[in-house]
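Example 3.
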Amino acid sequence: MVGIVSYGSYVPYRRLKRSAIAQVLGVPSEKGERAVASFDEDSVSMAVEAARDALRAAPAKSVEALFFATTTPPYADKLNAALVGAAALLPPELRAADCTGSVRAGVSAFLQAADAVRGGGKQALVAIGDARLAAPEAKAERTNGDGAAAFVLGSEGVIAEVVASASLTREFLDTWRQPDETFPHSWEERFALTQAYSPLLGKAVQAVLQKAGVQPGDLAAVVLDCPNPRATADVAKRLKLEPTRFADPLALTVGQTGAAHAGLMLANVLAAAKPGDRVLVALAADGADAVLLRVTDAIGAYKQPRSVGRLIESKGEVGYGTYLKWREILPTEPPRRPDPVRPGAPPMLRSTLWKHGFVGTKCTACGTPQLPPQRICVRCAAKDEMEPYPFADRTARIATLTLDHLAFSLNPPTVSVVLDFDGGGRFLCEMTDCDPAAVAIGDEVEMTFRRMFTAEGVHNYFWKARPRR
Amino acid sequence: MGSNGIKDRVAIIGMGCTKFGEHWDKSADDLLVDAAYDALGSAGIEPNDVDAYWLGTLGQLSGLTLSVPLKIPYKPVTHVENYCATGSESLRQACYAVASGAYDVAMAIGVEKLKDSGYSGLVGAEPPNDGTNSSMTAPASFSLLAPAYFKKYGLDPKKGKEVLARIAWKNHKNGARNPKAQFQAEVPMEAILASPKVAEPLGIMDCSGVSDGSAAAIVVRAEDAKKYCKDPIYIKALSFVAGPGAGHMDTDYDFTTFREVVASAADAYRQAGITDARKQLSLAEVHDCFTPTELVLYEDLGFSARGTAWKDVLDGFFDLEGGLPVNPDGGLKSFGHPIGASGLRMMYECWLQLRGEAGPRQIKNPRLGLTHNLGGFPGKCVSFVSVVGREGA
């Protein structure tokens, strides 16, 4: 049996109210809000969040393949999946690939991961993150959202079996963006809706139901996703899919999260799934993919660290102006400080376990955990008596702090905190996703993988603290 | 093994100091020439009388930075740096070289030209690294002291902020009596308290200024001092320590102290034979880069018992007329902090005070002065402490 053994999801902390966009641009005021990746987040960092939660919940740690999916890769000519693997502390004996080029990439990656396990692999990780960008005034600016989902697929401890899948691919022009362009273009809506999305999505759904020998009435939940939501409504109606069984499209709370969206909706469905449930996941974009899952008895004992619901509830607002600044759509005056310097490739390679995995050291002579990694113990001065000691999953408390109004940041003031980790270890770092005025000595925080800055085309990823979510 | 010190073996026979401030019309070369010739004139010697030089400045690669503008003819010039204590490091090296007998006359000189960068504060290039270093600014690093101190000693943050403002107020009051200071005006408490936020809880008036400047000292063996000058000042102690950075890694550190300062003060007091700094010192010039730094230094240097410095501040104990005047020249607060020059600028105030040349801020009958200069950040720094005095002090 091949299927999902664990999953994770991520919805960034910040929300942009659609009415706030209307206020500035005079576009129609729409209901709800959308999730916004913070200034220090991107598709990779969000995928890492979801992947870490998925791995935390996985019964065994034997991932042999990693597929990272996105339409917004931080690097166009470098393996982004390698970064995800490093931050998730996956072993170097790893097959890794980026799946990109269409919002379909997330489901494609999922199916490739299932095939990898079916082909004899132990576990495969699918990590999908997307921070979709649309031009101001574009409808997509309001309907898009940012987020991530991750799945560990395996053959042991399966909580949702992949029963069948069906795929269709067709070349047509709906949404496109050249590699050097910031915003996508799209063709007139009804063309893709009537000529591609509706027929293809319908066919794929019919095909997978047929393969699995399942009737629409047998479905416990239906995840339907398409850049044009009218296609999902049309297909549901034509195929007589029961409306009460539709997964929450998260339109009012998160927005459409591109390649991650079907995965995010599925993660939300799995949180409430019962043994025996049949779940249909179908997506139309540049063709269509449909997957039929059967929830197993193992879901009864399964414990998910953070649900989509909890992540949706854990939020703070962002103003439209700040959002434009974060996405560097609105140019603003840079701080009167030198530009950040790009990190060096050799030092990054030497310290990758620390930089990407947040692994410090622990002195085996006196037992003191310390970070960054040391050779000589800061407490007992023993030389080379260290063992690796991971800090990423440890919570910490704030020992002292400051609000730095001068540091180079897209979101001043920078909150800098001195952290004392539970179990030992002291570190000074930045804090994110917080209200600066509310941060206090003694607050509990957790660590999060972020993009610190970009210099000379090099994205500098490292870890920050945030209030527990 | 031990830090044996050179008590009364080396004397300063001349000092020079430029005005600190915005020297838009002067280069670092100009400032070096001005301070060097001011010091030479003060000692009554010619350039050729100096046998060796120690130059303190940041980010330069060699002694040529000094030898070229001064046209030093084929003599040893050593470039040193040690963060914000660079000026003090140059003095220490020059003193030890003379004490060793290697040279008869040495010059320690420091300079920094901060206003030419277009940025506020020090701009330094780091070697290539892995991008995991904190990008915290200097005021932010030092402001970590404030909430930690307030919390530990039960100071209401509003009261704590007043204590910090009182330190800035005092230093500006002193600086107003100093023609060489960058800022020569008293600043009302309200203005300090209401100044724009820089690194909360610090406002701009809790921070030292950004200025250009240079200062120099000429040192000789103590037995030769009187040949040059009727009232030289004598080196009683020089202590310099670099910390292991434990404060950024060790949870025992509570951000209400600089362990490096405690260590260098203990070493210097031992060298100088000081047992009660609060009573024995006549004045102290300390590294008031930010107001909470000065607050914590009072305790680290043994001027106040732990947890009580804030009361001494409010009582005026460190005022010019108080029990132990601290930063009588106005400190970094009034002078700004041209890195390589600051340590020597502090010594320049001791030179003036101990010789009775400090004008309207002259302290009555001073015998022993202390300079304290640090570089780095709370938890991870270098610290320098010197004690100097009049003969027989």
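Chain B touches chain A at residues 118-121, 123, 125-126, 128-132, 134-137, 139-141, 143-148, 151, 197-202, 244-251, 253-255, 379 (CB under 8 Å). The first helix of chain B runs from residue 28 to 43.
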